[in-house]
UniProtKB/TrEMBL annotation:
GO terms for cellular component: cytosol. Its EC number is 3.6.1.22. The gene is nudC. The lineage of its organism: Bacteria, Pseudomonadati, Pseudomonadota, Betaproteobacteria, Burkholderiales. Belongs to the Nudix hydrolase family. NudC subfamily. It comes from Bordetella petrii (strain ATCC BAA-461 / DSM 12804 / CCUG 43448 / CIP 107267 / Se-1111R). InterPro entries: NAD-cap_RNA_hydrolase_NudC, NudC-like_C, NUDIX_hydrolase-like_dom_sf, NUDIX_hydrolase_CS, NUDIX_hydrolase_dom, Znr_NADH_PPase. This is NAD(+) diphosphatase. CDD domains: NUDIX_NADH_pyrophosphatase_Nudt13.
Length: 242
C-alpha cells in the first residue's frame, strides 16, 4: 500500500514489481480490474509503497476490509493449487467459476473455506474471557476452534469448551459470522450459558481464562471490527469497568 494513506497499487506499480495483469488472479469473475497475487517474501516494495500486514490493517480498511479478505483468500487458493494433489499435473483454471481443474485426472479444487466456531460463555452476570497460549500478544476473547470432520457447529462448541476450559454449556444462541482470512476461515459466533464444571485450562491452547463481571476491570479485547470484538462488546456485563 502507499506509505501515505491506504491506496492500493495500480497496474503501473505492479509492472515495477514484474507483474503483468494477465498473470494476476481475478478477485471477482465479473470485474477483471480487481486482481490479486502473492509475492515472494524477498520482494521489495516500489518507491512510495510499503508492505503491511493484513491483520493490522483490518481496522483501518473500513468497507474495503471484505474485499481485502477475499483477495487474500483467492490468492492463497491460487498459490496452493498450482498442481494437482492427486497426480501432480499442473492445474488449469476453469473460466466460468473459481475452480482449478486437472487436465489429466479431472480433479477439481475450489477456494477452501474452513468453518470455525466461536462462543462466549455466560454465567449469571459474568462472561468468560480467555487468552490463547499460541499468541504472545493475544487479547482476552471468546473461545474458538475449528470444526472437525463429521461435526456440527454445535458439536464443535461443546467439544472445544470442554477441551479448552473443562466446562459444560447449554442454550446455544447464534450471534453472527465473519469471513476471516487467516488463512481462510469462516468464524461462526454463538453465546452459550454455563451449565457445569470447574475451570480447567488446556495448557497448550489457553494461557489464561477467568470470569469477568460487575466491578471487574475489562482486559484488552479484540478490535471492534472483528466478530470476536463485536461478540464480546454486545455481551458486556453491566457495571464492568472498561
Amino acid at each position: 500500500m502507499r506509505e501515505a494513506g491506504l491506496d492500493l497499487p495500480d497496474a503501473a506499480t505492479c509492472s515495477v514489481l514484474g507483474l503483468r495483469p494477465e498473470t494476476l488472479q481475478q478477485v471477482w469473475l465479473d470485474n477483471p480490474q480487481i486482481r490479486t497475487t502473492h509475492l515472494p517474501a524477498t520482494a521489495e516494495a516500489p518507491p512510495g509503497y510499503a508492505f503491511r500486514k493484513l491483520r493490522a490493517l483490518m481496522a483501518d480498511l473500513g468497507d474495503r476490509a471484505a474485499l481485502a479478505s477475499r483477495a487474500f483468500q483467492i490468492s492463497e487458493w491460487a498459490r496452493t493449487h498450482k498442481y494437482c494433489g492427486v497426480c501432480t499435473t499442473p492445474m488449469q483454471p476453469v473460466g466460468h467459476e473459481f475452480c482449478m481443474r486437472c487436465p489429466a485426472c479431472g480433479m477439481s479444487a475450489y477456494p477452501r473455506i474452513s468453518p470455525a466456531m466461536m462462543v462466549l460463555v455466560r454465567k449469571g452476570d459474568s462472561i468468560l474471557l480467555a487468552r490463547h497460549a499460541t499468541y504472545a500478544t493475544a487479547r482476552h476473547t471468546a473461545l474458538a476452534g475449528f470444526v472437525e470432520a463429521g461435526e456440527s457447529i454445535e458439536d464443535a462448541i461443546h467439544r472445544e469448551v470442554m477441551e479448552e476450559v473443562g466446562l459444560r454449556v447449554d442454550n446455544l444462541r447464534y450471534f453472527g459470522s465473519q469471513s476471516w482470512p487467516f488463512p481462510h476461515s469462516l468464524m461462526i459466533a454463538f453465546t452459550a450459558e454455563y451449565s457445569g464444571g470447574e475451570l480447567r485450562l488446556q495448557a497448550d491452547e489457553i494461557a489464561e481464562a477467568r470470569w469477568y463481571g460487575p466491578g471487574d476491570a475489562l482486559p484488552e479485547i479484540p478490535m471492534r471490527e472483528s466478530i470476536a470484538g463485536s461478540l464480546v462488546r454486545a455481551n458486556l456485563p453491566a457495571g464492568i469497568r472498561s
